[in-house]
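go over this chain:
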Amino acid sequence: HINHSIFWTNLCKDGGEPSGKLLQAINRDFGSLQGLQARLNAIAIAVQGSGWGWLGYNKIDKRLEVACCPNQDPLEPTTGLVPLFGIDVWEHAYYLQYK
């Protein structure tokens, strides 16, 4: 439930590119927004079965990191990362397009 609550909260009507401190952190930790997208895509594709790909904040290192969690395992208790953005890779998110 927590993963989907974060997921739905992060979606917004107008969308747009990250800016300000978030964009600075993305550029520092991934080189560019495209670098972050590539890393997130790779980690989400690597999920075996159902799960989540995440962008999270490491409070100790004060850096952004990508991680994946199986099933509905929440990011922070599983990895210590504060969840910022999640990609739902459960089959219900895509299976109708590929059945």
